[in-house]
Amino acid sequence: MSEIREFIANEPLFNTHDHQAGYNQEWDKKRFDDFLGYATADLNTAGILLDGKSKKGIFDVWPFARTTGYGQAVELAVKTLFDMDFSASQADAITESMQALIRDRSPEAVYEDLYGRVNVQWTVNDGGGDNITPLDYFSGDNLPASFKCALRCGRAQVLTAARESRIQELEK
Question: Domain residues for 66?
Answer without folding.
Answer: 28-105
